[in-house]
Design goal:
The chain is of the alpha/beta class. The protein contains 11 helices and 6 strands. It has a 6-stranded mixed sheet, sandwiched between helices. The longest helix is centred in the middle third of the chain and has 19 residues. It is globular, with a radius of gyration of 20 Å. It starts with 6 loop residues before the first helix and ends with a strand.
């Protein structure tokens, strides 16, 4: 068995790099887990994790890229490294291997952010004259986050923390990651996390999203979760879960982007 783990233990691994490594090893030898093939194994792991099998492609792809291009970072298993950044590096390497080789050490050392990688990817694609297919969801997420950021900077009062607050991008070395930080007189009063459109919003994902939002309240007065308006009924489910689990300090807002009749942000002070 991969790393001596049972399939359930593998599925419960929280560190995404460790999980991806164990999953990759298991996929290479599914028979050892009583599975006929890799697809059956992935289906079982997905069921144990409460996710869709397709979502397991990302940690596999990220880890497989690291095996060839960042073995040291793979060994260190630093969970603070964002998986989306590694996936972006893999896309950059398709367009320009030299650029990816230049950016990778800076990214893994903290010198280059996930957003800077996205910008580098867009520039590389423009220079090559061909966008990379298959990562439209990631690009939509970046575009959504960017529009929310611009909107909040122009309308900081919408968060209902007064007119004297400023919105900044959160530093990468924050203990619990977030997208934006709300500051008043030099002090952090809230943090903001954006969640773009998703085709599947299963209950486990909602619980994980709320759990991360709750963690952000440990050092800050307020944790604001801004989701895409397409989340629909899942928005009310998030609010219901907040009440059922008695999660304090988390507020939920939904944002309608400009290409869908916005920009407009609807903010719930309390769920």
């Amino acid at each position: 068995m991969a790393h001596g783990l049972t399939l359930r233990e593998l599925s419960e691994t929280r560190n995404w790099i460790a999980f991806g490594k164990a999953l990759s090893a298991a996929v290479d030898d599914p028979v050892r887990y009583g599975c006929d093939d890799a697809s059956q194994l992935l289906a079982q792991v997905a069921q144990l994790r409460g996710v869709e099998p397709a979502s397991l492609r990302n940690p596999l792809a990220a880890v497989n890229w690291m095996k060839e291009n960042a073995p040291k970072a793979l060994r260190e298993e630093n969970a603070k490294i964002p998986m989306t950044g590694v996936l972006t590096l893999s896309q950059i390497s398709i367009v320009s291997k030299c650029l990816a080789d230049e950016l990778a050490p800076k990214f893994f050392s903290g010198g280059v952010s996930r957003r800077q990688l996205e910008i580098a990817l867009r520039k590389a694609e423009a220079e090559q004259g061909r966008p990379i297919a298959g990562h439209k969801r990631m690009k939509r997420a970046v575009a959504f986050e960017e529009e929310v950021f611009r909107f909040l900077q122009e309308h900081p009062a919408v968060i209902e923390l007064g007119h004297d607050v400023e919105i900044f991008r959160t530093e990468r070395d924050a203990l619990v990651p977030s997208d934006f930080t709300v500051v008043r007189a030099g002090a952090t009063v809230a943090v903001v996390e954006c969640k773009a459109h998703r085709s599947t919003l299963h209950r486990r994902y909602l619980l994980q999203t709320l759990a991360m939002a709750a963690l952000r309240t440990s050092d800050h007065a307020l944790s604001v979760l801004v989701v895409h308006s397409s989340w629909g009924r899942a928005i009310e489910e998030l609010c219901d879960l907040c009440r059922e689990l008695r999660i304090a300090g988390v507020c939920i807002a939904w944002f309608k982007p400009s290409d869908e009749g916005g920009p407009k942000l609807t903010f719930k002070k309390s769920c």
